[in-house]
Design goal:
With 322 residues, the chain is α/β, with parallel strands linked by helices. The protein has helices spanning 31-34, 73-86, 108-119, 150-168, 184-191, 202-208, 242-250, 268-282, 292-301, 317-321; strands spanning 2-3, 6-7, 11-13, 49-51, 54-56, 58-65, 90-94, 97-98, 101-102, 124-128, 174-175, 197-198, 216-218, 221-223, 228-229, 231-233, 238-239, 254-261, 287-289, 304-307, 310-313. The chain has a single domain (55-301), classed as Glycoside hydrolase/deacetylase (TIM Barrel). The chain has ten helices and 21 strands. A hairpin with a 2-residue loop joins β20 (304-307) and β21.
Amino acid sequence: MDINGWSRRKYLFAAGSSVSALSGCSERIDAATENDPSRDENSPNREPYQLQPGTYNTIVIFRNDDPQPGFRSEALRKVEEIFIDTAVPLTSGVIPMLPDNKLTAESEFCGALRRRDRRVPELFEYSLHGQTHQTKTNFYGGSEFGGRSFEHQRQDISRGASQLTDCIGRRPSTFVPPLNTYDETTVQALLTEDIDVVSGGKWFTDQYYEPQPLPFEADGALHVPGTHDIVADWQTVEFVPLEELKTEFDEANRLFVCMLHYHHFTDEERLRYLEKLVSYVADHDDAGCMTLGTFGDAYLSGDLTWSDNSWDYAPNSEQEES
């Protein structure tokens, strides 16, 4: 059955919503409601999203790196609109302290992030994406954090987390390292800020931690590396052919963590590419879409478990049993 041309997805709205149960990744949000200027911006348009309890072959996390003030804000808005329209969760790694442009709670950029968070609660997560996104060591080809002392890393993470907290109104619980690289010291520094989920690159974790089933726990944190990238060639910023990326999703085992950079979507052709990819993923009933943070919370709490070649999602199971 279709709703306005969109297949029903496997998401639930909390009590009081007009839609009770969906199958697949998501349900389209009424754009007219989302953009209604008369609506109180302090009130959400919808109740928070929750993945429906059940069994899934693949968990999907879309990771959008580099949101920052003053840089291609229209591209960011259009990318986020795609995820709003398809109601697929998106984790954005926000750079908190660019050398010449730091986050401030009063800025239009931070105000826009807070408004989106209120309008579609739990659909977007804003993760800490380093501090300044500068290359500070040659660790694994380049890193902002790997290879530095604990105190230097802790200070940068603490400052970045405070800046992002002031911007979005809640403290980040996940970390996306610039250049996808970090070390054991980074993880220990993150834990001092109560950040216990980190998403670097699979190419990096395969070398630093050795190849293993994803996600994995090490050094006291949960590691959920990016498994796929929309960009095929970083010199030309050529995208992976859409049909090839769809096939990679179809063949994904356990996790499909897809990395994108919003500032690459500056024309209609590339925006259509992203819309087709997100819609294709959302149309699969055996795929469950989550943010990096909700995945980490569910996995670490035991609400999301992997067995018999599939994921079982049973939120609040312990509370219900008691």
